[in-house]
Amino acid sequence: MISHKSKKNDALVEFQSCLGGLDENRFGNHYLDRFYRPQLNHADTAFLNGDGLLKDSQKPKKWFECLELEPAAVRECVLINYHND
Q: Which helix (DSSP H) or strand (DSSP E) does residue 69 occupy?
């Protein structure tokens, strides 16, 4: 098990390390948000099992599909992995 300084982690990395200097408040948990904070961990973002069926906070593939609609937005969009039990 990896030890973490913060309880905000996805079992692999701490949430703060994923922010890249951005304000945490800019992130939403819906796949239509430009800065997406899904309820996933790094293993979930391998896209082996697709999107979750019931929660908008568990749809990383859908988030990427929305980005394809506006390719210029890709440079400004950030997906971070954070799962808090």
A: helix 60-69
State in Å, rounded, how far the first CA of the chain is from the last one: 16
Domain ranges of the chain: 15-79
Angle at 46 between CA 14 and CA 72, to 5 degrees: 85
* Pairing of the two strands 78-79 and 35-36: parallel
- Strand segments, DSSP code E, in the chain are 35-36, 78-79
Which element (helix H / strand E) includes 62?
helix 60-69
Number of helices (H), then strands (E), in the chain: 2, 2
What is the spatial distance between Cα 72 and Cα 85, in angstroms, rounded to a whole number? 34
Q: What is the pLDDT of residues 1-40, one digit of tens each?
A: 566 576 776 666 776 777 778 898 988 888 788 887 877 7
The span from the CA of 74 to the CA of 34, in Å, is: 9
